Amino acid sequence: MSTVQNTAPQSATPASKPWVARHKLLTIFGLLIVAAVVAFYFLGWPLMKWRFHALFVSSLDEIRKSPVAVQRLGEPISVPVLPFPSGYVSQEGDRGEAKFFFSVVGSKDKAQASSLLRMVNGQWGFTQLVLEFPDKQKLDLATAIQERAGNDTPKFDPNAKPPDVKAPNLPVDITLPDIPGSGQK
């Protein structure tokens, strides 16, 4: 009998596969999530961003505060998911303009809203806030907002007589000085 033990030859441990190869489904799922986030950022956010703009929210709040709009639309008044609100905001210094177009829905009726706001001397104010219902009837909410906010813009009267403008009292005879080198004597 021999005293040497027979041992099996040790084989090299097999190289383990990379994590991605071992978790193919999880990797594909993760890549799909990343692609969806990137696609939303470039394609979806431009459509959704107006819902979160402060001036859009103030337009919706004014509609919700209006007793006439609440009576016609019913409560609660909300903006449906589709169609997306559209609009633009332009601001330069203490002047600016914002315009939004969106749908509103209440328990009784629905309407298309258009809102025009202007910023003068750093203050935003409503120039127009109109609801147009499916029967083509329009409801102007801006006049009530302007009266409540103290609008100091005079009302336009197309029949008003223009003010009399008097010519300034300037001397009629104006003598021009000689210009040296002009060739005139």
Give a topology summary:
Blueprint: H1 19-22, H2 24-48, H3 54-65, H4 67-73, E1 86-92, E2 95-105, E3 110-120, E4 123-132, E5 138-140, H5 142-149
Antiparallel strand pairs: 1-2, 2-3, 3-4, 4-5
Task: Please outline what is shown here.
This protein has 185 residues and is an alpha+beta fold.
SS field, number of helical segments: 5
Low-confidence stretches: none
Derived from helix and strand composition plus strand pairing, the structural class reads alpha+beta
Distance N to C terminus = 144 Å
Which radius of gyration do the C-alpha atoms yield? 36 Å
Largest sheet: 5 strands, antiparallel
H/E topology pattern: HHHHEEEEEH
Average pLDDT rating? 82
The spatial strand order of the largest sheet comes to 1-2-3-4-5
Query: Any idea what the shape is?
Result: elongated
Strand composition percent: 15-25%
Instruction: Name the helicity range.
Output: 25-40%
Number of strands: 5
Written description of the protein model:
The chain has helices at residues 19-22, 24-48, 54-65, 67-73, 142-149, and strands at residues 86-92, 95-105, 110-120, 123-132, 138-140. The protein has 185 residues and is of the alpha+beta class. It has a five-stranded antiparallel beta sheet. Strand 1 (86-92) and strand 2 form a beta hairpin. The chain is elongated and about 140 Å long. The termini are far apart.
Can you give keywords for this protein?
single chain; alpha+beta; 5-stranded antiparallel beta sheet; 5 strands; 23% strand
